[in-house]
Design brief:
Elements: E1 3-7, E2 21-24, H1 25-28, H2 33-44, E3 52-57, H3 63-76, E4 81-89, H4 92-101, E5 106-110, E6 122-129, H5 137-149, E7 152-156, E8 167-171, E9 174-179, H6 183-192, H7 195-204, E10 209-212, H8 218-229, E11 237-238, H9 259-266, E12 273-276, E13 285-288, E14 291-293, H10 295-305, E15 319-322, H11 328-336, E16 340-343, H12 351-355, E17 361-364, E18 368-371, H13 379-393, H14 397-408, E19 410-421, H15 423-440, E20 444-445, E21 448-455, E22 458-459, E23 466-467, E24 472-476, E25 481-486, E26 494-504, H16 514-517, H17 519-529, H18 531-535, E27 542-543
Parallel strand pairs: 3-4, 3-5, 4-9, 10-11, 10-12, 15-16, 15-17
Antiparallel strand pairs: 1-7, 2-6, 5-6, 8-9, 12-13, 13-14, 17-18, 19-26, 19-27, 20-21, 21-24, 22-23, 24-25, 25-26
Helix pairs in contact: 2-3, 2-5, 7-13, 10-11
The protein binds alpha-D-glucose-1-phosphate-6-vanadate and cobalt (II) ion (CO).
Length: 544
């Protein structure tokens, strides 16, 4: 193998965010930019010589070029084998599944998730370790440190490999296998859910479904599982071809970006279940006919019902949610006597808890739920969970959610995002807010009295790592909360996220619009942080 050592200089902006490094395509296309980051990953870990690396992405623009570059670097750095998804495709949960099943050293996932794709849009890269999950913070920080000091990277002279057919190839001395990206994942889903039962309902039309793959990576997975295996009629999966620019849309499954699906679910003859997934297939949105399931509620409902599904029939060990996620799941854990953990935002913080067997289910308010079957959130898994649950309970989505509220109370919840703010302005807003926290404690507002106000810090119960500065929490009497944090996935300016929650135990009050039920707290958030005055924005960019 003809190894080349290429001299380079550091870039100062390669600190991974909530989920990997995300930048505009033009940034990634600068000479050495991608290579510097990849070499910084390899230099941050030990023991990969001769081992397997899993490689794939969400199919967005620049996916294939980046993949060929990484293959040559992996060979030159001494990996023994690479498993690559056909056409460079692997959804994030499928990559996690493949890493675990084939006992790989780790994987590199090329995705900027729900961010738009195309030459003028975003690209991203993420490293997952041998447990199949996103590298823990101590590794991502080591990658960043390496990227600041890098002066050379290793590659090799080799031809590009054919990504468009399944089979074996070599890059230098490294074996490359182009694999079916769907097979291992489908087999895993078959172990967890009652495919026979779901097939009976879907193929007979007793249960109908519309899944929106948003022109992103989940299309091939949804076609294979929902249509081929489960017999849903053709047409049940829409926007099912992964496109390099996602057809120009935000591949973000929420009420704002999945408009067609939402219209269908609110129209005449709506299917029983509506769902959508994001760019890399790890998020999910669940809808019923004329009904929207808040992601936080979805997690709580899964926890309360998991025992009804084959993969979780033995019960669950515990649950976890990210700090801004609503406390609906805490109430279920309380009732079932299960441990419940509150982690910082981002899936990497669930890894240790899952590996240690402390939790079985976990989730985030940002349309992410998952279980110990992989180490990523998993969009299609969540859809199958709901399908299987509807089949077992024989009730509509709305009926399942409403009976959950009656039993546990309803945690009204909303997130308000202010996107593309000036970075300094957003940082000043947060810093001023932090400075005011001590004086807020004890203060009485119309919406309630502040019991606690802090900047969230997390000590990992498995390895004692402390992660601080994870978001400002204002906790009010009665469990209501307002949380403020800045996004760690954006590529333009800063995004301020405001998360608002209030518990309602009175069942006669469960049918309100959350924006109305939470009005007092929404006003209070603006009063405390002066969002409108400081940003000049009259309203959030996106409300979920
Ligand atoms: C957002 C979400 C967070 C999620 C992350 C990655 O991060 O809020 O819950 O884990 O995206 O999701 P942030 O820092 O922008 O709030 V994905 O599907 O974009 O990999
Ligand atoms: Co995603």
């Amino acid at each position: 193998m003809n190894i080349t050592t290429v001299a380079t200089q550091p870039f100062t902006d390669q600190r991974p965010g909530t989920s990997g490094l995300r930048k505009k395509v033009e940034v990634f296309r600068q000479p050495h930019y991608l290579e510097n980051f990849v070499q910084s990953i390899f230099d941050a870990v030990d023991g990969y010589r001769g081992q397997t690396l899993v490689l794939g992405g969400d199919g967005r623009f620049y996916n294939r070029e980046a993949l060929q570059t990484i293959l040559k670097m992996a060979a030159a750095n001494g990996f023994g084998r690479a498993l690559v998804g056909l056409n460079g495709i692997l959804s994030t949960p499928a990559a996690s599944c493949v890493i675990r099943k084939h006992r790989a050293f780790g994987g590199i996932i090329l995705s900027a998730s729900h961010n738009p794709g195309g030459p003028a849009a975003d690209f991203g890269i993420k490293f997952n370790t041998g447990n199949g999950g996103p590298a823990a913070e101590k590794i991502t920080e080591a990658i960043y440190r390496n990227s600041l000091a890098i002066d050379e990277y290793r590659s090799c002279d080799a031809d590009d490999i054919a990504l468009d057919r399944i089979g074996s190839a070599r890059v230098g001395e490294m074996a490359v296998e182009v694999i079916d990206p769907v097979a291992d994942y489908t087999a895993l889903m078959e172990q967890l859910f009652d495919f026979e039962r779901m097939r009976a309902l879907l193929s007979s039309g007793e249960l109908s479904l519309c899944f929106d793959a948003m022109n992103a990576v989940t299309g091939p997975y949804a076609r294979e599982i929902l249509i081929e295996r489960l017999g849903a009629p053709a047409g049940s999966v829409i926007r099912d071809r992964p496109l390099a620019d996602f057809g120009g849309i935000h591949p973000d499954p929420n009420l704002a970006h999945a408009r067609d699906l939402v219209a269908r679910m609110n129209g005449p003859g709506a299917p029983d279940l509506g769902a959508a997934s994001d760019g890399d297939g790890d998020r999910n949105m669940i809808l019923g006919a004329n009904f929207y399931v808040t992601p936080s509620d979805s997690l709580a409902i899964m926890a309360a019902n998991a025992h009804l599904l084959p993969g979780y029939a033995a019960g669950i060990a515990g649950v976890a949610r990210s700090m801004p996620t609503s406390q609906a799941v805490d109430r279920v854990a309380d009732t079932l006597g299960l441990p419940c953990f509150e982690t910082p935002t981002g899936w990497k913080f669930f890894g240790n808890l899952l590996d240690a067997g402390k939790i079985t289910l976990c989730g985030e308010e940002s349309f992410g739920t998952g279980s110990d079957h992989v180490r990523e959130k998993d969009g299609l898994w969540a859809v199958l969970f709901w399908l299987n649950l509807l089949a077992v309970r024989g009730e509509s989505v709305a009926a399942v959610v409403r009976s959950h509220w009656r039993h546990f109370g309803r945690n009204y919840y909303t997130r308000h995002d202010y996107e593309a703010l000036d970075k300094t302005l957003a940082e000043t807003l947060m810093n001023d807010l932090k400075a005011r926290l001590p004086e807020l404690v004890g203060e009485r507002f119309a919406a309630g009295q502040v019991e606690q106000a802090d900047d969230f810090s997390y000590r990992d119960p498995v390895d004692d790592t402390v992660s601080s500065g994870q978001g400002v929490r204002i906790l009010l009497a009665g469990g209501a909360r307002i949380v403020f944090r800045l996004s760690g996935t954006g590529t333009e300016g800063a995004t301020l996220r405001v998360y608002i929650e209030r518990l309602e135990t009175d069942a006669t009050q469960h049918e309100q619009d959350p924006q109305i039920a939470l009005q007092g707290l929404i006003d209070l958030a603006d009063e405390i942080a002066a969002i409108r005055r400081r940003t000049g924005r009259a309203a959030p960019t996106v409300i979920t």
